[in-house]
Design goal:
Helices cover 56% and strands 0% of the residues. By secondary structure, the chain is mainly α. The chain has one domain: Hypothetical protein af1432, CATH 1.10.3210.10.
């Protein structure tokens, strides 16, 4: 499997924040320590498939065309392919990479519904959406905390797991604090070297 570029600094930062938030949610959900570690590691590489998406699409400031959307959606399958061909614990992250854009009502990339979606992918999806909404992207400004929480509440039980959203919102100060501990998170949660951008940008 070849790829066009390593993950950018911001993409890496998003993956680290998503991993830290997923770790928090997994602990709050009462998962055993071994499963918490698996979820955290899976979240850390959930967007690894974006290494094969052209930078012009990832960085586009306007709406994506239908064709560009189709290419962007490929990052989940590409990520799953990369991870299934690695060794050790990283192989268990393949399902999360493939399914983190699935939604309970079947409106996600693959059309999976409810229990068809891997439990770890459901958890990472909540953390992923939360961080993405609060973060600046080429095509949008960061959302306010209030708008983000209201939107997540509207998704609960419809598109995203209601229990996990409840846990996140009930522990909002802790979740927000995690997002701002970038230095500590960077030292503890590391993207695999081949996929980490080492230059500026």
């Amino acid at each position: 499997m070849t790829y066009i570029k390593p993950l950018s600094r911001e993409e890496q930062a998003h993956c680290r924040r998503t991993a830290a938030l997923s770790e928090l949610l997994a602990k709050l959900a009462g998962l055993p320590d071994s499963e918490v570690r698996t979820v955290t590691q899976s979240a850390l590489v959930h967007d690894i498939g974006k290494t094969a998406i052209p930078p012009a699409i990832l960085g586009k400031t306007g709406p994506l065309t239908e064709g560009e959307h189709a290419i962007m959606r490929m990052h989940t399958a590409i990520g799953a392919h990369i991870l299934i061909h690695t060794h050790g614990a990283m192989r268990t992250a393949s399902a999360v990479a493939l399914q983190h854009h699935e939604r309970l009502d079947g409106s996600g990339y693959l059309g999976l519904r409810g229990n068809e979606i891997h439990p770890h992918a459901k958890l990472v999806a909540v953390a992923d959406v939360f961080d993405a909404l609060l973060s600046p992207r080429p095509y949008k400004r960061p959302w306010s905390i209030r708008r983000t929480c209201d939107y997540l509440s509207s998704l609960a039980g419809v598109k995203l797991d209601a229990k996990l959203i409840g846990l996140l919102l009930d522990h909002l100060p802790q979740a927000l604090a995690l997002r701002h501990e970038e230095i500590r998170i960077r030292s503890r949660l590391r993207i695999p070297g081949d996929y980490a951008h080492k230059g500026k940008g």
